[in-house]
Amino acid sequence: MADGSDGPSPELLAAIDRRAAAPLHAQVERALRGHIRSGRLRPGDRLPSTRALAADLGVARGVVAEAYAQLRAEGRLVANRGAGTRVAARASDSGPARPAPRSSGGGESHLAAGPQPAIRFDFRLGIPDLALFPRRAWLAANRRALAELPDGDLGYGDPAGLAALRGELAAYLGRVRAADARADSIIVTAGTVQGLALVCSVLRERGVRRIAVEQPGWAAQRAAVLGAGLEPVGLPVDGCGARVELLAELDVGAVMLTPAHQFPVGAVLDPERRRLLAAWAANGDALIVEDDYDAEYRYDRSAPGCLQGLAPEHTVYAGSTSKTLAPALRLGWLVAPPALAGPLARAKLDADRCAPALTQAAFARLLAAGELDRHLRRTRPVYRDRRAALLDALAGHLPELTPTSADAGLHAVALLPPGLDERAVVAAAAARGVALTGVRQDGGAGDPGLVLGYASLPAERIRAGIAELAHAVAAARRTR
Ligand SMILES: Cc1ncc(COP(=O)(O)O)c(C=O)c1O
Questions:
Q1: Which DSSP symbol is given to 46?
Q2: Which of 150, 215, 228, 447 supports an S-S bond with 200, CB 3.0-4.6 Å?
Q3: Rounded CA separation 427/117 (Å)
Q4: Tens of pLDDT along 288-314?
Q5: 480 CA distance to ligand 1 centroid (A)?
């Protein structure tokens, strides 16, 4: 019979009961009929070769050959020379249809709930333009990683991360962010979100009960604090960043903040406040948790180094590839003071053993080859131009709004004038297909304003979107 195959044999589960009265070939037939009827085997699917399935089931090859022959006779299977045995095109009338291919569209519609019109301009938050992901460099780094990774590295690895990546990260963070990082102070995580959760769990073990978080701030930070059973305490923010002078009154064991580019407002933490913060942590033996989420994107060349470089003994630094490459990599890192590196690695072990070795190895090679630097040099001007287009369009169409954020990152903030309600503007914008968020949306703190992610939109879409937003603002004003 034609039992050839054009690829490795697929796995197939078929329960065989040697004590049952039914002959073995009939049991195999019944199992395969069941798979076809239920849709687990679908029209066109290739079956294992008779040799492979017989070996898997521990039966003679003739048993499987007989079962295949019976099912061919029933019209459920077809055998094509050289292409092996497949499920016939109309093998089952009752099985579920093959699922429709997933949309490869802009990934926007999943959040457009209820009767809202389709999103035409998506200014929701700040992910990089995914079309700019350096696929070739990533592919090359993956190929090399796979070819060169020792077999031993395919086991459960060091929970702190692959040594090669930690070494590369220490060098990169020292060079690009003036961090005081050594390989053994780094823990590789599944993005910043996991890193912050690990920090909170370790702080809880160490008796911390309250953590200050910026207000307004990133909802995921608050969630990390709450998730570890700790109490988030709001720390107000102004045009110079978090108001760290208030920390002394808050009775907290740690503060979580975004000094390079306050999220969402966009302020850069003032040098004097950096000094104050470092002194507060040192004097009270408290911890600074620095979320350095988009610091590589700075367009005015005056990027301050990270806080961790200023107070390495009292700071856990958190970063990730989500803003520089793509959130889907789920790759992040912590830089911890010596006393916390071990507990954080143990927390990572408890959470999920370790980060995926191949992704780590590929990223280590990307860093070593200078490809991340190249990618940043290539994308920075793109985002700088998009930011300029946004500010230009705001000045032209909505001069009553006040852009506040630093010349940095992947989103900007425009404050609303008195009398304009943030929620009403966001709703009026959504009704016109302009998706955006408000400063006060997560937790109700801060001056009313619009948070506008611009990185994924070409300049002409930004201009058209802001023109549409101007109509929404006018409508919100009329319905006030
Ligand atoms: C303030 C802030 N930090 C960090 C991140 C990145 O999180 P992760 O690395 O888990 O993707 C984001 C993403 O939106 C963010 O807004």
A1: B
A2: 228
A3: 11
A4: 999 999 999 999 877 789 999 999 999
A5: 34
